[in-house]
Design goal:
It is a single chain. Helices cover about 40% and strands about 20% of the residues. The termini are far apart. Helix 1 (about 1-25) runs antiparallel to helix 2. A hairpin with a 3-residue loop joins strand 1 (about 60) and strand 2. The protein has two domains: about 1-55; about 60-145, Pleckstrin-homology domain (PH domain)/Phosphotyrosine-binding domain (PTB) (PH-domain like, Roll), CATH 2.30.29. It has helices at about 1-25, 30-55, 125-135, 140, 150-155, and strands at about 60, 65-70, 75-80, 85-90, 100-105, 115. It is an alpha+beta fold. The strands form two sheets. Strands 1-2-3 form a three-stranded antiparallel beta sheet, with no helix packed on it.
Length: about 170
């Protein structure tokens, strides 16, 4: 976005300077050079707009302690140890199980997390297998980066003390 805005600004500036240069006697050489600069800036702006339009609508992030799904402005998190089931079946289709293209992660004491792996450029079966493997293999998860979002620390305050789980 920044590159596109900067390139469009430079294109406008070079175009204005080229017009001014052509209006000055003996300024045609500078005008052609400025026109070439405006054309280059326009090409960069078009490239940036194309990249922005084809930007993926969602992101899937794997960290040591959690899975992060970002779809637009909606952010969903699933801690590996809280995952119970990872399935491609519709959770409301029991007893007639119906396989879908949406991945549903059932979490302990939380609402299920559902997303379409195709939005991330992944095949549903491969995505499910990867998440199940990462959920079950703690040694494999140590190769993933740590979750250290400054935004996460700003939103959720640091609380000292032990975690209390409700027990029945």
């Amino acid at each position: 976005m920044t590159v596109g805005v900067a390139a469009a600004s430079w294109a406008v500036l070079f175009t204005a300077l080229a017009v001014a240069a052509f209006n000055v006697p003996q300024g045609a050489t500078a005008g052609f050079a400025l026109t070439a600069g405006a054309a280059g800036a326009t090409a960069v702006a078009a490239w940036a707009i194309l990249k922005f339009v084809t930007w993926p609508p969602a992101r899937l992030c794997f960290f040591r302690d959690r899975l992060l799904v970002i779809q637009g402005r909606h952010e969903m998190r699933a801690v590996w140890t809280a995952m119970e089931t990872v399935t491609l079946s519709d959770p409301h289709s029991w007893p007639d199980v119906r396989v879908t293209d949406s991945l549903t992660i059932q979490l302990k004491n939380e609402a299920p997390l559902t997303f379409k792996p195709a939005a991330f450029g992944l095949q549903p079966n491969a995505c499910r297998d990867l998440i199940v493997r990462l959920r079950d293999d703690a040694r494999l998860r140590t190769r993933l980066p740590e979750f250290d979002s400054v935004r996460d620390l700003q939103i959720s305050p640091v609380v000292a003390g032990e975690l209390i789980e409700p027990r029945l």
